[in-house]
Design brief:
This protein is an all-alpha fold. Helices cover about 80% and strands about 0% of the residues.
């Protein structure tokens, strides 16, 4: 009976050793996939702190895997590596979530800016068209500036589609500057009604 118990105990111990010595391939693949998804979402740019934490977690996991690989197979224990792989996966998912949130906010901000500038452009075009021909202003030059503003807004819209938010914001800002310049010229060229003295 003692022999049977000892044999059963040795089988249980051997199974535990083998299960601990097995590399956590599935968790490693999940961590790597999560990192790739975070990178594709632009976590380096839009969530740099969370991205760095995810990278550090991956480095700790890889260091632990390397340490276990250098051990004799019966002495390997991948429990820590499993834990680190889960941490790396969670950190990468967090980085992706933060990047997605930041991009959504930027998209909303730039979309609003483009819409506001486009509205101002339409107003400026109407005011320029309504300007009397006798006004001392080069309307062709002003119209050219408004056309350039329209092209800049088109570029901003295109940059938005490619998620180049900084470039989109810069183009929309340049368009706004052109329009403001035209509006000032229109204001200076518009005769003001005379104020009656009492």
């Amino acid at each position: 009976m003692k022999r049977l118990f000892a044999f059963a105990f040795s089988i249980v111990v051997a199974l535990l050793v083998i299960s601990c010595a097995k590399s956590p391939d599935e968790q490693i693949q999940q961590a790597e996939a999560a990192m790739e998804a975070a990178e594709a979402a632009g976590a380096q740019q839009y969530a740099p702190e969370a991205w760095n934490q995810a990278k550090q977690a991956m480095e700790r996991m890889n260091a632990e895997l390397s340490a276990q690989d250098h051990k004799f197979i019966l002495f390997r224990n991948f429990n820590t590596a499993r834990t680190l792989a889960d941490e790396a996966t969670n950190a990468a998912n967090q980085a992706k979530a933060e990047a997605d949130k930041k991009k959504a906010q930027l998209r909303a901000d730039v979309t609003k800016m483009i819409a506001d500038v486009r509205s101002t452009l339409q107003s400026a075009q109407s005011q320029l068209s309504a300007l009397p021909r006798t006004a001392a202003v080069n309307t062709a030059n002003l119209r050219s500036k408004l056309d350039a503003a329209g092209r800049l807004l088109g570029k901003a819209q295109s940059d938005m589609g490619a998620e180049r938010f900084d470039s989109a914001m810069a183009s929309a800002g340049d368009a706004r500057d052109n329009i403001v310049e035209v509006l000032r010229a229109i204001e200076q060229a518009t005769p003001r009604p005379a104020v009656r003295k009492r």
